From TrEMBL:
<keyword id="KW-0812">Transmembrane</keyword>
<feature type="transmembrane region" description="Helical">
    <location>
        <begin position="46"/>
        <end position="70"/>
    </location>
</feature>
<feature type="transmembrane region" description="Helical">
    <location>
        <begin position="77"/>
        <end position="96"/>
    </location>
</feature>
<protein>
    <submittedName>
        <fullName>DUF1361 domain-containing protein</fullName>
    </submittedName>
</protein>
<feature type="transmembrane region" description="Helical">
    <location>
        <begin position="116"/>
        <end position="134"/>
    </location>
</feature>
<feature type="transmembrane region" description="Helical">
    <location>
        <begin position="20"/>
        <end position="40"/>
    </location>
</feature>
<keyword id="KW-1133">Transmembrane helix</keyword>
<dbReference type="Pfam" id="PF07099">
    <property type="entry name" value="DUF1361"/>
</dbReference>
<dbReference type="InterPro" id="IPR009793">
    <property type="entry name" value="DUF1361"/>
</dbReference>
<feature type="transmembrane region" description="Helical">
    <location>
        <begin position="199"/>
        <end position="218"/>
    </location>
</feature>
<feature type="transmembrane region" description="Helical">
    <location>
        <begin position="146"/>
        <end position="165"/>
    </location>
</feature>
<keyword id="KW-0472">Membrane</keyword>
């Protein structure tokens, strides 16, 4: 177990600052693309993407807060904050499925809408990976490397299941409070009768593998950049 006052060391804090700058610039691009589309068309159709980005920021904010917290404080809040993190985490990679909304529309070039949605989807994915990396590091420092990767696999599979619940059954993170009975019933039905719901497990497994490979790739690229030449 780590005895350091914070999960982020000084070099990690500098990297975190640089990451915030890059993510901020990328998010600003998405906001600008949506705002310009509204100005151009006088329609607010894609404004919902900004809400999705806000939801994607929540797990990243929570994992950053845990990393910056002093050791004793972090130990007390790790489980409850981690549970809230897991609840909101699927909102970040969920934005990938907003590509479903891409189709030719009057007033805006098709390529513009493609760039707009891809920008938001990219930001959602990067926020997911940055947040997951924070949480994996916290688990690794407490339970070891193997447990941290088991946590990653479980988190991404649960996130992919959450993507299915959100995209196809139209549940969201708030339904665990506002609509828990229907949410629990639909989840339990699919767990007890998996053969009757191949789409559920197809989406869960396919997106889970995709997200895991993407996360592993990003991690390996980060390590390569840290290798001295």
């Amino acid at each position: 177990m780590s005895t350091s006052p914070a999960a982020f060391s000084q070099p990690e804090l500098r990297q975190r600052f640089n990451l915030l700058l890059v993510l901020g610039a990328s998010l600003a691009l998405s906001v600008a693309l949506v705002a310009f589309r509204v100005f151009l068309t006088q329609q607010i159709y894609f404004v919902f993407l900004l809400w999705n980005l806000f939801l994607a920021l929540i797990p990243f904010g929570l994992s950053t807060m845990l990393g910056l917290a002093a050791g004793p404080v972090r130990a007390r809040v790790l489980l409850p904050v981690g549970a809230v993190w897991l609840l909101f985490f699927p909102n970040a990679p969920y934005i990938l499925t907003d590509l479903f909304h891409l189709e030719p529309r009057n007033g805006v070039p098709y390529w513009y809408d493609l760039a707009l949605i891809l920008s938001c989807a990219w930001n959602g994915l990067m926020l997911a990976y940055a947040s997951l990396l924070d949480m994996q590091n916290l688990v690794r420092r407490r339970l070891g490397q193997a447990a941290s990767w088991a946590f990653v696999v479980v988190a991404l599979l649960l996130s992919s299941f959450g993507i299915y619940l959100g995209r196809y059954l139209r549940f969201n993170s708030w339904d665990i409070i506002t609509n828990p009975l229907n949410l629990f019933y639909d989840i339990l039905t699919r767990v007890l009768h998996p053969v009757q719901h191949p789409g559920t497990w197809g989406v869960t497994l396919l997106f889970g593998v995709f997200l895991l490979l993407g996360y592993s790739t990003v991690r390996l690229m980060g390590r390569l950049s840290a290798v001295p030449s």
